[in-house]
Amino acid sequence: MDLDHARTVAVEAAEAAGALLLEGTRGAIGVRAKGEAGDVVTDLDLASEKLLLERIMTAFPSHAVIAEESGLGGAAGGEWTWLVDPLDGTNNVAIGLPAYVVGVALCRAGLPVLGVVHDPVSSQTWSAIRGRGAVASSGARLAPPYAPGPHGPLLAWTQGYDVSRGDATARGLKSALELKARRVLQLWAPLLSWAMLARGDIDGIVGYRAEAVDLPAGALLAREAGIEIRALDGGPFEECFDAPAEDRSFVAAHPKAVPGLLSFLKQV
Fold this sequence. Notes:
7-stranded mixed beta sheet
């Protein structure tokens, strides 16, 4: 498998989808309900996904593809699976907030080997190949320093769509973070949070039962930038898309910051 070629295909597809989204957000957006938890889907999600699927399935017809809106496609049961999040931040777009990205991952046996995140608003793309580091559009390597602030860390929180408002664990985790952190961002766009962490704009992410489609691309990008990811109990964490929801809870931060972040959550 030529991962450099795969990255080129993924980057070009994500950037083309991003151009479509950027143009689409300048006009009226068709929004409708998705599921029973208050989520939404827009016409832009579907148009972006169609473009991404056409690009990826044309280039790699023997691969499987799992897309946010349409589910499983391509050649199922093979070694390679693409994950496509055509518009991460749909709820933001629906209310006119320009905070959204496009995410693509290529997984082998469940684990991501390639991750791409494209931000149409800033025209920036970040990508990573497992074991080869993470880079920005310019080719510059991502390697955020350890720079603790005097007033606590700036963190992002993400949770899966199936987490209810009354989930006691989620409430406990968020309360613990609010007590210790300088700020806790809830961006409604997990991949954007991962890109911010990989760049060093924020200090950490705490995830609870994270969504499977967008987790692998972001987590690989962060890991290859030098970020450490641990399960909530401090144990090892793998960003497998086929892991059950209960195994998709984590803390992610610079290795020197992880012990402190875990200590925030010790009593939950």
